[in-house]
Amino acid sequence: MKNLVKKAKIYFLDLDGTFIDKVNGYETISEKNILTAKKVNLSKPVIFSTGRGNTEYTMNIAQQVGCEYVVCLNGALVVDKNNKEVYRKEMPKDIVLNVIEEFKKHNMCIYINGIKNMYHSGNFEGVLVKEWSKENPKFNYNDIDNNGPFSKLLVFGLSIEKTEELHKYLSKKYPELAFYLVSNGYTIEVGPNDANKGIANKFVCELLNIDPKDAMHIGDSANDMPTKYHLGYFVCMGSSQEHVKAIAHCVGPDYSNSGLSTVLEELEELK
C-alpha cells in the first residue's frame, strides 16, 4: 500500500463490509472508523458510495463524517448533504417487471430502491432469510408498485449454488441491466446498466472539480469493482472475495476491528 500513500485527493468509501465494521453487532460502526474518516475529511473529501438507499441511517453516518455528497443504490442515486437528489438513473420498467417475475418463480425475498420493505409470497419454507431482514416490514408480491420507479433491486433466498446459477442466467437474458453477485454469493443486486459506483463517483468528482484519476474507492464487493475503470485507484478490504481482490490496486486488512481506519491511516500517514 506504500505506493498509494498520499495519492488520492478524494476518498469514496463503501459502507457494508468496509466502513460498517459491526463492532457491536449489525449496523454498528466503531468510533475509530468515524473519527478517522472525519479527520481525513478535514483536508480531502470523504464520500460514502454504497448500495444502500438515502435512508435516515445512511445520511446520519454521512453527517457524522461531514460528507458533501452520498452515492447511493450502487451509483443509481446521488444526493447532497441535505439529502437533495442531484443525480438519478432508473431501470426500464418493462424489463424490471420481467426480472421481478423471475425472482417470484424462485420464491425469493425482494427489496426495492434500498427501502427496508420485504416483498415475498408469504411461504418461507426452504427460503434462506437473512438475519437482518427478519424484523423488516413484510408485504406480498402483489403489493409491489408496478409503476416504479426502479433504481435498484436486492434479492436473496436461495442457496449459494442456485443464486450463482440464477445470476448467470439473468445476466445473459437481460443484458440491459447490471447484475451483481454480492454477500459472499447469496444475494443478487440489480441496477441500470448505465449506472454504477464508478460512474456516479466520477460525477461527484466533477461536482467538486477533482480529476477522477486522483480519486480512490475503497470497498469489498462486486458492486465496487466498476470503480477501477472510472477512477484512479481501487483498494479492497482483506475480507473481499478473490475475484474482487484480483483487480484491486491494493488489498487492505479485514474490515472488522476498524480495518477501514487502518487503511486510511496508512494512506494518509496519520500515525
Automatic annotation (TrEMBL):
Record keywords: Hydrolase
Cofactor: Mg(2+)
GO cellular component, one term: cytosol
Stretches assigned to coiled coil: none
Annotated InterPro entries: HAD-like_sf, HAD-SF_hydro_IIB, HAD_sf
Keyword Hydrolase: yes
Top-rank lineage group of the source organism: Bacteria
A Pfam family assignment: Hydrolase_3
Keyword Hydrolase: yes
Gene Ontology molecular functions: magnesium ion binding; phosphatase activity
PANTHER family: HAD SUPERFAMILY HYDROLASE-LIKE, TYPE 3, PHOSPHOSERINE PHOSPHATASE
Name of the protein this chain belongs to: COF family HAD hydrolase protein
Organism expressing this protein natively: Mycoplasmopsis bovigenitalium
